[in-house]
Specification:
Elements (H helix, E strand, L loop, with lengths): L2 H26 L13 E9 L4 H14 L3 E5 L8 E6 L4 E6 L2 E7 H6 L3 H12 L30 H12 L14 E2 L1
Helix pairs in contact: 2-4
Amino acid sequence: MSSGTHRRALTAALIGTVLAVVAPATAVAAPAPDAAVAPTVRTLTYDATLSAEFRSAVDQGAAVWNQSVVNVQLRPVTPGQRADIRVIADNGWPRAIPTSLGKGTWYMGRQAVTQGYNTIRISSHEFGHLLGLPDRKPGPCSSLMSGSTGGVSCTNAYPNAGEKNEVEWYFRGLSRARGAVPAGVLIKD
């Protein structure tokens, strides 16, 4: 073997060894996918400290929406942080007062719970109002926003495809959408 051939073989072997060692590190450090393709997620915080015995139902109602939509996520407020959404338990009927898209107060009314309505469905429904959805009464149990017209036996806490799409559309532009629930209007379910 000539010295030129020997050098080329040694160089090829050396390059192969370097690539074998460097390649895994390069693969791990690959750039993230284009951020312009990924959806923008708007995080809304909620304060459920005044939701009393319904805290678990409130958290489960938020989890329903987090599993159902991509453009908006609901998270509990952290100490010292101002919440977008306040949740309060009282003895009345469940109701929501949106102040703008994704902001406002809703009430977990014990009157509906006493009558036998499902607390997680109530929670998901009321969050739905603050996410821009109106009541859709009368309606079937398969429609979360049918509220109490779904009946006491209705435990469906998940929005249907149309309700999900509507919320996704409202939060895609991150502004109040035409057709969404107007701000400052009491929505009594």
